[in-house]
From TrEMBL:
GO terms for molecular function: tRNA (guanine(10)-N2)-methyltransferase activity; tRNA binding. The keyword Coiled coil does not apply. One of its GO terms (biological process) is methylation. Residues 181-298 form the Ribosomal RNA large subunit methyltransferase K/L-like methyltransferase domain. It holds the Pfam family UPF0020. PANTHER family: RNA METHYLASE-RELATED (PTHR13370), TRNA (GUANINE(10)-N2)-METHYLTRANSFERASE HOMOLOG (PTHR13370:SF3). This is tRNA (guanine(10)-N(2))-methyltransferase. GO terms for cellular component: cytoplasm; tRNA methyltransferase complex. It is an enzyme of class 2 (transferase). Its main location: cytoplasm. It is found in: Cytoplasm. It comes from Glomus cerebriforme. Its EC number is 2.1.1.214. Belongs to the class I-like SAM-binding methyltransferase superfamily. TRM11 methyltransferase family.
Amino acid sequence: MTKYFIQFVQSHEEFRLPELESLAKIENVKISYNREDYKKNCPFLIIEIDTEEEAIRLVKRAILIRNIYELWGTGKSYEEVHTRVKAKPERWPPYNYKSFKFTVSAFGSTCSSDYQVGIINTFAYLGFKGEINLKDPEVQFGVLEDYGLDPAPPTEPYMIYFGRLIASGNRDLIQTYNLKKRKYIGNTSMDAELSLIMANQALAAPGKLIYDPFVGTGSFLLTCAQFGSFTMGSDIDGRQIRGKTNRSIKSNVEQYHLRGKVLDTFVFDICHHPWRDNLWFDAIVTDPPYGVRAGAKTLGRKNPSKRSLTTKLIDGTPAYEEENSYPPTKPYEMSEVLSDLLEFAARFLVLGGRLVYWLPTVVDEYSNSDLPEHPSMRLISNSEQNFGQWARRLITMEKFKENIIGDRANIHNVKGLDNLSFVYKKKDVSPNEEEITNTKGKKKPGHYLFREKVGLVEI
Ligand SMILES: C[S@@+](CC[C@H](N)C(=O)[O-])C[C@H]1O[C@@H](n2cnc3c(N)ncnc32)[C@H](O)[C@@H]1O
């Protein structure tokens, strides 16, 4: 195996390794790295890969990887770096007569152009005779210094990496799918970067069928289709899907030239879905409604006793047959949404299929044991995006075992008790000890009564 080093973007740090692992799986590339070498406060990671062709494939659709370099030398000082570069002179000849470019950059610090030129000159012993071409070189070398993220950077870098640039990730896609440029968006449309990361987590690829049961304005249909999958979605609220004249999921599909990949969208309540029992989705990618912007609803009445015993007629026709008639809906508690989602995934995913979804949590109360579980689904990754008091976690699960009819999701015994959440008013009542433990005295998960805890209450 050959040593490379990855330069990640310095954001979404908890998402970087899961994305790397997903990319390796999608591209069937064997990678090896020391888990202890990965630091959230550092963008560099040394990794071993068999061939250069595989290294290029590994990063070609990466969102959180800027570049991958073949590692020529690393060390805490330039002396160490040069010793390592000089130890393998057989690497140099292929580049002797190629046009080339050197770059020098510092993570956590800045370096003047004089300093950069000085560093570049220390590599003169490589003896490259090709022309220097800053715009379109045949080969590019990078010197990357790591000064860490302390407010006062050290005078010398903690580590220096030197290598030949092999390939870059696909961060341009973030601009392509930028919500500001998208024809149709809603207030819950997912930002482009995260939607693309989710498509990678879902292992979206040609020939796969990916489904979003809470499709809204269809962000994931687009990004999963971008990577070649067929996609479909559904939502209880047809207005989200239809949008307004010339601005709808359909117009977005046209905008991104994804016709033929985004198959269709449907309007129905996921609790009363029409799918036949079969294993057919390769992935489910979704942002369930949890009330920060759009609360979940399911068909039914909040108070069934108010249900009229006779069918309401309008001019002799049942009211529900009117074009503008909508069936009544009632709140759909978050833990109920989650258990239904896991059970749906266990039933409808192919073996090895992935469920990728967001789980909102109250930061101070979250613990890993809060994660919903299902006997057929195993956890692949759990990455936090923190907003202070609350966070959302991108959960990736894989169906690893056939679903047995009757197997239930484990939402820590909160199922059925959660409708409690709708008796509170505004922020004046915070859940008490009794309410955050279940009937068996076990602590309820941090997302229990989530809306109340962050001040979002349905009355
Ligand atoms: C957070 S939004 C999804 C936004 C979407 N990812 C996007 O990019 O626009 C959640 C969606 O779930 C829908 N929803 C709520 N309850 C539902 C149910 N019982 N069945 C299906 N969809 C539901 C809402 O109408 C809303 O559009």
